[in-house]
Design brief:
This protein is mostly beta strands and 428 residues long. It has two helices and 35 strands. A hairpin with a 3-residue loop joins strand 15 and strand 16.
């Protein structure tokens, strides 16, 4: 019975070491698999059999595999050129979903846009995230991230900021101020001009000229606003605002009036369908820096306005908080969605589904889904992929140990076979 027992013990050793080699082989095969998490075999001895000698004579009956443990240690990151490649720096999983199907979890961050505009994994599963509305504000709802219909809506100009220096050495123009409907302000009727483009409610661009004219009163200038209110190809330049704006400077060249907004009304052609008249506040300064009258050539120091035309999506970016933002052709940036991260109490209890995917199980517990960087969830690294967490050197050492264990157990079997042969020879 003892010799036969040693043979069965050797067989159990062959089985467990063979399974260990299979696990090691799987780890090595996935060395270059993005987001792959390695496994290790968990061994235990088989319940011992007590001989007639009692507890002091317990004999082991071999080994067995208790299970395969997933190792969710952090992998290294590889920089990529794809802005939709993402890696999780910390705990958690991306949430991906089949169309009208099940929900899965993955550490692999390779994503792309399909023909319908959905962000999908290489297997075609849709990435889940918090959705944003057209204004770029979160709705709180979680769903498929889609960028197909995302656009930047136009915004009408409400405010213009113009900061200039007007040459204190300028003289009063000899020509009277006048505006031609076809050519604009008459040459020689002003000292300095700056141009700025504003936008109506439909995103139409309107060039606006701001003309500065010196007055006979020391330290005083007139600012006149001229806009083209005609249809495209049919100019109709008119002075808007009713009366000129008087700029007053002190003896230090600092603007003393007006220091607040001056409303200007622009009458657009009703046939365009835009809001008309459009009221725009004009400031002759910005962020506490006002226009000046110094003894240097007149120049535009700074100018800005808060309107823009409509725009289409040109590029996508992802932040550490998982917010997916769109960069549009009109220069605007708008939030589109925020990638969600699922965290499990026991990630080692997840069920491996293949293709870099895991499924929820009773051992893993239910996922806690939230924003990256919150409640222990990892942050998002854009233009990066988490590589496999396999250490090849460590796997080769384990492989050698498993191989030697397998060979040693074969020797146990052959030795036991030899002993049985000797027993058979006694009968002969």
């Amino acid at each position: 019975m003892g010799i036969l027992g040693s043979m069965f013990t050797g067989v159990s050793g062959l089985a467990t070491n063979g399974l260990a080699l299979s696990i090691i082989g799987d780890n090595i095969a996935n060395t270059n698999t993005s987001g792959f998490k390695g496994s290790r075999a968990v061994f235990a001895d088989v319940l011992s059999q007590a001989s007639t000698g009692g507890s002091a004579m317990q004999i082991g009956r071999g080994s067995q595999m208790l299970g395969v443990q997933q190792l969710f240690t952090q992998g290294t990151f590889e920089t990529t050129a794809n802005p939709l490649d993402m890696g999780i720096d910390g705990d958690g999983f991306f949430v991906i979903k089949e169309y009208q199907g099940g929900t899965f979890y993955t550490r692999a961050g390779q994503y792309l846009l399909n023909k319908e505009g959905f962000m999908v994994s290489p297997q075609g599963l849709r990435l889940q995230g918090y959705l944003y509305n057209d204004a770029g504000n979160p709705t709180g709802a979680i769903g498929d991230i889609n960028v197909a219909t995302v656009n930047s809506n136009p915004n009408s100009t409400d405010t213009m900021n113009i900061q200039v220096n007007l040459d204190s050495r300028s003289t009063v123009p000899t020509a009277a101020w006048s505006v031609s409907p076809t050519t604009g302000a008459a040459p020689g009727s002003y000292n300095f001009q700056t141009n700025i483009t504003i936008y109506d409610s439909l995103g139409n661009a309107h060039p606006v000229g701001v003309y500065f004219r010196r007055t006979p009163t020391p330290g005083q200038w007139q600012a006149r606003i001229v806009a083209d209110t005609g249809l495209s190809g049919s100019p109709n330049y008119v002075e808007v605002g009713g009366s000129p704006i008087t700029l007053i400077f002190n003896t230090s060249g600092q603007l003393t009036s007006p220091l607040t907004a001056t409303p200007i009304t622009f009458p657009w052609v009703p046939g365009w369908g835009a809001v008309t008249p459009q009221s725009v506040n004009i400031f002759f300064g910005y962020a506490g820096n006002n226009s000046t009258q110094y003894g240097s050539p007149s120049t535009t120091i700074f100018q800005t306005q808060d309107g823009w035309t409509s725009g289409s999506l040109r590029a996508l970016t992802v932040g550490q908080d998982g917010v997916l933002s769109g960069v549009f052709t009109n220069g605007q940036v708008k939030n589109i969605a925020q990638v969600t991260i699922a965290k499990f109490t026991n990630p080692a209890g997840l069920t491996k589904m293949g293709r870099n995917m895991f499924a929820e199980s009773s051992d893993s517990g239910q996922p806690a889904v939230g924003s990256p960087g919150t409640s222990g969830r990892g942050k998002i690294l854009a233009n990066s992929l988490e590589m496999s967490n396999i250490d090849l050197a460590d796997e080769f050492v384990k492989m050698i140990a498993a191989q030697r264990g397998f060979q040693a157990n074969t020797r146990v079997i052959t030795t036991s076979d030899g002993l049985l042969g000797e027993v058979m020879n006694i009968v002969r």
